[in-house]
Structure formats: structure tokens, C-alpha cells
Amino acid sequence: MNSLARGSTAFGRTAIAVGAALLLAVGCTSQDDGRNAPLPRMAKDDALKWAKDSTAHMAELTGAELLPDTVRVNWEECVGENDEVAEDGRYSLFYYVYSPAPATEHTRMVRKLRSELPGEGYEVTSYREFKSAYASAVFRARDKKNDYSVEAETVGSGKSKPQRFSFAVRTPCLLPPGDKQQKF
């Protein structure tokens, strides 16, 4: 067999193998686009601990002080693509805390997070350095393994509200351990 024929045969086998793999993958995929895929499980206490630890870690990386009296914990219902709300205990958490760091430090802080967090498995999704109260510092990143997100940004106009720096985290939709996941 000449080299062209061997190449065609090898290509043919490769094409068949790829086609079979795609057929298996498509055949095994849920017909509901994953809306009933198993949710990650985490107790609310563990999610809150993760949020506190994550914001403290970001503050430590940037050398920022945190203001404990500014902590806000927001437990949110998970709303589906078609506005469905499950009644199985699933939730997401949005948690934030402020730092009194002056606006003159905000660019340095977001630069530090942009340089450090990708090495910890985060993908930067939004970034802007501080220019003014109307174009303030923004850093957002998503953990590539579990879809948790972290945010750090300038908050407050500086006129009616003092400009501060906010560290925040958001979880994806989570289900408490032991709770049975509702199907749609």
C-alpha cells in the first residue's frame, strides 16, 4: 500500500473514531440541556465559611483592612432559565465586605488580584483600573473548576457616599447535602 493510501486509511479510521465518540457523547447527553444535572452540594455554613475565607484571602493579598460591620450575607433563590424556582432547598450566596482603602490604592489592589488569582485557578472575566468615580476599579474572576466568582471593586460615588473598596464572592446554585434535588 502506498503512503497516500495508508494516509487515507488512517484518516478514515480517525474520522470514524471521532464520529463514534461524538455519537456517544450526543447520545449520552440529557435532552433537557442539563437543567436536571446534579447540582454541587454544600451546606450553607460551609458556603458562608468559604465566602469569609475568600474575601479575607483577597484582602490579605492586597494588604487591605476589612470592615467587619459592613459584611452583607445574601442568600438567594436559584431562578431557572424559564423563571422556575425549585422548592428543594437550593440556594446561591452573594457575600461582600468593604475595606476603607482610599481610591488612590484601588488600581494597585486590582493589579495585585489580576496577577495572583489566575495562578490559583481563576479566570479573569472583567478588569479596569481606577480612573475616576465614574470609571472606578473593577476586578472579577471565575474559578474554572467550580464556577464560584470573586469580585473586587470601588464602591461609592465619593460625593454622597464615601469611596471604599468592596470584596465580594458569589456561589453558583448549590444544594444542601442530604436534600433531594427537584426535577423539572
TrEMBL record:
Source species, domain of life: Bacteria
Protein name: Lipoprotein
